[in-house]
């Protein structure tokens, strides 16, 4: 079966799918990961096919339009700006998505391309399913992850979830309207198309652990949780020599990184991080990432991309932006966390870390200062309960097989075609 796995966004929206794609290929399928061209090395290292999409997400975040995200102080405000940015870009990816789909037998769609990918699947009469990294379906159990964590009550949470999904549909409205005409499909709105998918119980598997987010009891049939999809890190890839030397030269350090998040003043934030680590008496491994963090001193080491699976188990704690993928990597490593949520679903994952007892609290980036970060680091690294709970949870998560349910679903689709 020729499988096209389609996703768009930052590195965190791509890396987990390299492991899923590799697992499906090991299961006997011909898999092509369809995503931005800048992620070609990441995909090719997983040993699967690659089809590039236009748009460089890092360049977009560095643009005037992308920097405007920093001026939004609320989840709703950031969401509105991101919707406007995505609406302006999504049409440029249509031709490549369509070309990749024509060479495939089944489509696996991330939430970032769901409405567009589903229209393509319908127009080409291809089976499809969702493979999502966040719990986006409306539920009364929690507020939509992309706008924060404050509950509006059961009814309010469901209304907020439907409102967010309507906003996401709006991103694709113009593009899907033109695409439906191009593919000879009857006219319909993105909202009506979503409702039709829900009536047909279109399947969506979610790539996180039910130990971290249990399946909401009010979800419709067809929405299920598979377990984490881990980025494919080649086992032969060692840590860089300079990093190995730094780790061997002293006690376990603290990892600090913000992944694909961008910040308005990297130099100031880097100084805050260094002061906090030193106040807590800790060494630091600082990942440059898209935020441009840096620190050069005997007790600090700046690194670029490095496999979290190899690095995190050797840390005393991890300070991160609480993206879905980095949160998962920290949980698998079994080390305490200090989440610094930046935007979108980060506050949701931060709250889960705190509720699970593996983090002392969340420190939103806008209010981050050295004394607060130092205090959180002291708690995370000196109170044994955090590492004990992190280790217990990690052992259970590592027993899960997130790829298996997706492989079984693809095999069922193969049997039907």
Annotation keywords:
alpha/beta; 12% strand; 2 domains; five-stranded parallel β-sheet; 45% helix; 417 residues; seven-stranded parallel β-sheet; 12 strands; Rossmann fold
Textual characterization of the structure:
Helix content is 45%, strand content 12%. By secondary structure, the protein is α/β, with parallel strands linked by helices. The strands form 2 sheets. Strands 3-2-1-4-5-6-7 form a 7-stranded parallel sheet, with helices on both faces. Helix 2 (40-44) links the parallel strand 2 (30-36) and strand 3 (49-53). Helix 5 (75-89) packs parallel to helix 8 and helix 6 (94-102) packs across helix 7 (114-124). It is globular and about 65 Å long. The protein starts with a strand and ends with a helix. The mean pLDDT is 91.
Secondary structure blueprint with pairings:
Elements: E1 2-6, H1 15-26, E2 30-36, H2 40-44, E3 49-53, H3 57-62, H4 64-67, H5 75-89, H6 94-102, E4 106-109, H7 114-124, E5 128-132, H8 153-182, H9 190-199, E6 204-206, E7 223-225, H10 241-248, E8 254-257, H11 266-279, E9 284-287, E10 300-303, H12 308-311, E11 317-320, H13 324-333, E12 337-339, H14 346-355, H15 370-382, H16 384-397, H17 403-416
Parallel strand pairs: 1-2, 1-4, 2-3, 4-5, 5-6, 6-7, 8-9, 8-11, 9-10, 11-12
Helix pairs in contact: 1-17, 5-8, 6-7, 7-8, 11-15
């Amino acid at each position: 079966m020729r499988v096209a796995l389609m996703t768009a966004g930052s590195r965190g929206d791509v890396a987990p799918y390299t492991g899923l794609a590799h697992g499906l290929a090991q299961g006997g399928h011909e898999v092509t990961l369809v995503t931005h061209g800048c992620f070609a090395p990441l995909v090719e290292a997983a040993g699967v096919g690659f089809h590039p999409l236009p748009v460089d997400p890092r360049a977009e975040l560095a643009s005037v339009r992308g920097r405007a995200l920093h001026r939004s102080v609320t989840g709703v405000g950031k969401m509105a700006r991101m919707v406007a940015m995505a609406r302006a870009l999504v049409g440029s990816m249509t031709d490549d998505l369509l070309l990749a789909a024509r060479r495939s037998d089944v489509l696996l769609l991330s939430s970032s391309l769901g409405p567009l990918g589903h229209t393509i699947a319908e127009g080409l009469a291809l089976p499809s399913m969702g493979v999502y990294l966040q719990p986006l379906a409306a539920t009364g159990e929690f507020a939509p992850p992309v706008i924060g964590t404050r509950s509006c009550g059961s009814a309010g949470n469901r209304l907020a979830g439907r409102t967010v999904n309507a906003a996401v549909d709006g991103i694709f409205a113009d593009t899907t309207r033109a695409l439906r005409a191009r593919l000879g499909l009857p006219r319909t709105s993105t909202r009506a198309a979503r409702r039709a998918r829900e009536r047909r119980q279109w399947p969506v598997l979610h790539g996180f652990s039910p130990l971290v987010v249990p399946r909401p009891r009010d979800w419709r049939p067809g929405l299920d949780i598979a377990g984490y999809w881990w980025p494919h890190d080649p086992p032969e890839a060692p840590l860089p020599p300079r990093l190995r030397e730094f780790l061997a030269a002293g006690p376990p350090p603290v990892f600090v990184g913000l992944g694909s998040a961008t910040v308005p003043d990297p130099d100031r934030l880097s100084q805050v991080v260094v002061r906090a680590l030193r106040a807590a008496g800790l060494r630091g491994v600082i990942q440059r990432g898209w935020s441009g963090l840096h620190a050069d001193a005997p007790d600090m080491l700046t690194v670029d991309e490095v496999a979290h699976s190899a690095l995190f188990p050797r840390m005393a704690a991890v300070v991160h932006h609480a993206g879905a993928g980095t949160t998962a990597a920290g949980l698998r490593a079994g080390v305490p966390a200090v989440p610094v949520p930046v935007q979108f679903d980060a506050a949701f994952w931060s709250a889960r870390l705190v509720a699970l007892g593996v983090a002392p609290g969340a420190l939103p980036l806008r209010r981050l200062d050295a004394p607060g970060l130092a205090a959180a680091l002291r708690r995370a690294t000196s109170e044994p309960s955090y590492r004990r709970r992190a280790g217990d949870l990690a052992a259970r998560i590592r027993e899960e097989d997130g790829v298996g349910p997706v492989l079984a679903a693809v095999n069922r689709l193969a049997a039907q075609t």
